């Protein structure tokens, strides 16, 4: 296997980040006689798959496809859906070999795509799980891999705080919201690539956020999920500007408030209990094909997720922290505790969440820290 070709396919796949849900991001490179003759990626749900796009790209350049090798980051599909099976398309065009970066976890395709390719006379090679590129391919599609395997969205817990090495910040007054332009641009990107964002009603009431994707993603819709047990939030807030919102409440909500929201045409999801049930909410969002959920904030929300994660390890998948200021010798923590007593009450101690892998990036004076709790 030529690693450079698979690396090129991975770069192509990244061009679909944030647009393909509930489908995965997939890239494909078509090679013949050591020359790349076609390139494709899955642009958005309903559009051609990466394999078909690479084939069409080669045709447009009038290349002969027969006898070529296809490098694709994910196992080709083998069923009829919005598009025909890629396995049939590959075989019909005389592609002699397919190199696959990762196995599809979706039950209708899992290893069946490989089986069908071989039945159609196409040679198949799988990338080794020990390959460093394999880890990058898997990391790209974590939201899809979780949703396809357990039906729940990939949950990213976001938090911004001031932090000094080996300290616990107990005073809420010491917390300063990060407003640097570079950091804001990065935070916007995390929203842009999500399918939904979740906050509590106090967050909406005080900050009146817009939660509107921008730039390259400006036409994308991100579902705005508001936890409001008693429906206390004013309905003139910007999050209620259209129907792309979901307010989650409990039996504590007065009938008058339920009627008010109904009359205003605001979509609601009601628990039949007096308590918020995070797992049930995630199951509901999964059925709505939400694959990546960004939990933006609210002290009560952090507590709800952290408490449930103690008993169910797939509730929280990743923590995303913007920490400022940062000591130059500060090392990435291996374990992390979510804020539970209020914004900024952050401690780096060995309990709560076990971080399996972590990456960090310096953005001005701010450290962007990503800790992965689950790897699918």
From TrEMBL:
GO terms for biological process: riboflavin biosynthetic process. The keyword rRNA processing does not apply. Pathway: Cofactor biosynthesis; riboflavin biosynthesis; 5-amino-6-(D-ribitylamino)uracil from GTP: step 2/4; Cofactor biosynthesis; riboflavin biosynthesis; 5-amino-6-(D-ribitylamino)uracil from GTP: step 3/4. Binds 1 zinc ion. Keywords: Hydrolase, Metal-binding, Multifunctional enzyme, NADP, Oxidoreductase, Riboflavin biosynthesis, Zinc. The active site is at 51 (proton donor). Its EC number is 3.5.4.26, 1.1.1.193. Residues 1-125 form the CMP/dCMP-type deaminase domain. Its cofactor is Zn(2+). Zn(2+) binds at residues 49, 77, 86. GO terms for molecular function: 5-amino-6-(5-phosphoribosylamino)uracil reductase activity; diaminohydroxyphosphoribosylaminopyrimidine deaminase activity; zinc ion binding. InterPro entries: APOBEC/CMP_deaminase_Zn-bd (IPR016192), CMP_dCMP_dom (IPR002125), Cytidine_deaminase-like (IPR016193), DHFR-like_dom_sf (IPR024072), Eubact_RibD (IPR004794), RibDG_C (IPR002734). It catalyses: 5-amino-6-(5-phospho-D-ribitylamino)uracil + NADP(+) = 5-amino-6-(5-phospho-D-ribosylamino)uracil + NADPH + H(+); 2,5-diamino-6-hydroxy-4-(5-phosphoribosylamino)-pyrimidine + H2O + H(+) = 5-amino-6-(5-phospho-D-ribosylamino)uracil + NH4(+). Substrate binds at residues 174, 296. In the N-terminal section; belongs to the cytidine and deoxycytidylate deaminase family. In the C-terminal section; belongs to the HTP reductase family. Converts 2,5-diamino-6-(ribosylamino)-4(3h)-pyrimidinone 5'-phosphate into 5-amino-6-(ribosylamino)-2,4(1h,3h)-pyrimidinedione 5'-phosphate. This is Riboflavin biosynthesis protein RibD. It comes from Candidatus Magasanikbacteria bacterium CG10_big_fil_rev_8_21_14_0_10_38_6. The gene is ribD.
